[in-house]
Amino acid sequence: MTQVFNRRNHSATKSRSFWRLYDNNACIKHWFRGNSIKQYNKTGYFIRTETTINNPKSLGLKKPVLYLQAALWAGIECNDRMLNCCADVDGTSICELEPDIFSKPIMDDSGRSVTASDFRKPRQQALAEELLKPKYQAHGFRTADLLQNLSGHFRNSAQIRYEMNKMKARDVISKSNHKSFYRVTKTGWKWLWLEICSTKHFKNPMISMGMKNQALKIAEQPSQIEKAYELIQEGLSKLTQELAVIS
Q1: Measured distance CA(41)–CA(22) in Å, rounded
Q2: How far apart are CA 237 and CA 142, in angstroms?
Q3: Among residues 100, 117, 106, 122, which one has the least CA distance to residue 163?
Q4: Does the pTM of the predicted model rise above 0.85?
Q5: In the CATH scheme, what is the code of domain 105-247?
Q6: 8-state DSSP, 56
Q7: What are the tens digits of pLDDT across the range 153-176?
Q8: Looking at the record's lineage, which domain of life comes first (predicted)?
Q9: Is 182 helix (H, G, I), strand (E, B) or coil?
Q10: Average pLDDT, the chain
Q11: In 3D, which of 95, 146, 100 has the Cα closest to residue 123?
Q12: Which of 43, 55, 150, 213 could be cross-linked to 34 through a Cys-Cys bond (beta carbons 3.0 to 4.6 Å apart)?
């Protein structure tokens, strides 16, 4: 936050962050010396960034209305720095040598093509959340341990091994020497946390909000069948009047 607000960090600096998910909308807000900056998905399609300056003096600004334009430009600069930080946090930036390693198929040591993990599937996200639990950091985990805790998402251990092979090929998890236990690597921690947060707090809310808006638009418009019925009724009424047919 010191970089976003362009201020020096010292022991008296107080900052905090929180996130909320409500009505298919995600919001992340950061506080810094009484000022705040937040991001949320606008109308389900765009990420909007807003800076609120409640304590101008803490940012080197003056409070009178005469200096309001300076506060405006300071807020715009904070928004730009925040968006630049978000641009740096991307799955392709975790592994510099092969930027598309997490999103495209790759070749394993045996020369076989290994597809990327699909976090649109609930079981893939459940597996990622399970791997990041602290209880596995001391001794690692086995396939049997994962199956026991994820029986609602996987029918057998073969399905778990299939998903784990995708991660092993990308150095997300590694097997301990001469042991049957696996551990999440440093690269794996970065990527798994990024994918979980991105999917849960931005991708899914934005997609669901877009589908909700589309459904509302469809509901507000009369169907083509109803229009056709109205035209038929109108035509029959005119024919009845012209032919003087008493029904």
Answers
A1: 11
A2: 75
A3: 117
A4: no
A5: 1.10.10.10
A6: G
A7: 999 999 999 999 999 888 899 987
A8: Bacteria
A9: strand
A10: 78
A11: 146
A12: 55
